[in-house]
Amino acid sequence: MAMNPMQKKARTSFLTGVLITLLITGIIIAILLLLLKNMKDEQDATQAALARVYVLNQDVQSGQVLTEDMFTLMSVDRNTIPSNATSVVEVISGWYLQTVEGTMLNTDEDGLYYVDSEGQTVRVYTEESTGNFYTEDRNGNREFIQLNNVPVLAKVDMNANTVITPELVVQSDAVVTDDVRTQEYNMIVLPVNLETGDYVDIRLMAPNGQDFIVVSKKQVEIPLNSDGTYIADTIRLDLREDEILTMSSAIVEAYGIQGAKLYASKYKEAGMQDAAVPTYRPNSAVTTLLGIDSSGNITNPNVVEEAKNELRRRYQAPATTARNEYLQSAINSDPSYNANVQTGLDESSTNAQSARRNYIESLDAVAE
Question: Among 43, 223, 291, 318, which is 20 to 30 Å from 105 by CA?
């Protein structure tokens, strides 16, 4: 059937429109395919740039023991992390505290624990005198457990989401010896911002400006009343036998010498800073208790080898000279020395009794 010119023109316009539509659709499809390919390439490049590393899931303090539950494995752009962070994936499992059977220990606000095969939470405690780990049954009987690795400590304070590298942690080699005891002191001047877990040196400052290190790098525990309030003027320290006797000597002399002060000096980054070398030499009465003879040998069986080495350093010429030139001469020349000591010891006893009384009263208040 013949078409008139108007029909022919309309048909030509229609076919042209279809062709143009198909052409535009093809171009759009090609552009979309190209965009999809570019997006996939970018995703592949991004995925290739990711590294799986461990990050902290909570804030930790310098010197704090690290346990498995403190870490989360995350994928992070490798361009934003230290080059050695990727190796942590392979080695971090060796940091975790675990029993010889391979059960991981975790940490919460109440301390260490693990989950047994029946899904029960088992609390793990540390014996103060030896540092050994143990659990308790329902009757309160202790069952000691053995760990198959050494605890790992944070070198510095770190916030949650910190990428962990080997430089940020240290393998603890601290061993609690048989002569360690937990001592309470209420006569030490404390830093305003001191908290449980901080590390301090205990120092004796003399009126002439001399400043002696009595014991170094001890972790502090601040006792609590039963209602959770702190006993503000008291701290607990774990000390060896020689350190206990040396502290006793320093306390007496701080009381006796007018203007002397026994105070705690806080470490800034306990995980990174080495312990200071003690410079205070105890008095002759303590020397006798330690069993130090004229040759510098320590015969007291309660003093362990580490303590003996430290004491030998204390009895070298500089420490001996400093003591004889000032401390001992100040003691010998002050007629009120003994009276001052007696007053200070009485005040310390009164403070200790008062703190104990307040603690008992807080227990009674909770019980009611």
Answer: 223
In the structure, what pLDDT confidence band is assigned to residue 258 with cuts at 50, 70 and 90? confident
- Round to whole Å and give the CA distance between 295 and 298: 9
User: Any idea how long the chain is?
Assistant: 368
| 333 vs 330: CA distance, rounded Å | 5
d(CA 279, CA 296): 16
- Cβ burial of 44 (10 Å; 0-12, 13-18, 19+) is exposed
Spatial strand order in the sheet of 211-219: 211-219, 199-205, 261-266
* pLDDT digit string, tens, across residues 320-365: 565 655 566 666 666 676 676 677 666 766 776 776 677 667 666 6
Which DSSP symbol is given to 329? H
363 with 331, same domain: the answer is yes
DSSP state of 303: S
Which amino acid, 129?
S
Where a domain ends, among 109, 136, 171?
171
Find residue 183's DSSP bridge partners.
Answer: 237
β-bridge mates for residue 73, sequence order? 54
Domain extent, residue 74, equals 51-171
Degrees to nearest 5, angle at CA 250 with 252 and 188? 90
**96, 68 Cβ separation under 8 angstroms:** yes
Q: Where are the alpha helices (DSSP H) in 173-327?
A: 241-256, 284-290, 305-314, 317-322
Pair (216, 130) in one structural domain: no
Please report the DSSP string for 24-91 in residue order. Answer: HHHHHHHHHHHHHHHHHHHHHHHHHTEEEEEEESS-B-TTPBP-GGGEEEEEEEGGGS-GGGTTHHHH
Q: CA 62 to CA 218: how far, in whole Å?
A: 13
Who contacts 185 (Cβ-Cβ below 8 Å, separation ≥6)?
234, 235, 237, 247, 251
Stated pTM of the model? 0.51
Q: Which one-letter amino acid corresponds to residue 70?
A: M
Q: What pLDDT score does 96 carry? A: 57
CA angle 148, 149, 151 (to 5 degrees): 135
What residues does 147 pair with on adjacent strands?
99
Position 174, amino acid: A
Domain boundary among 171, 199, 233: 171
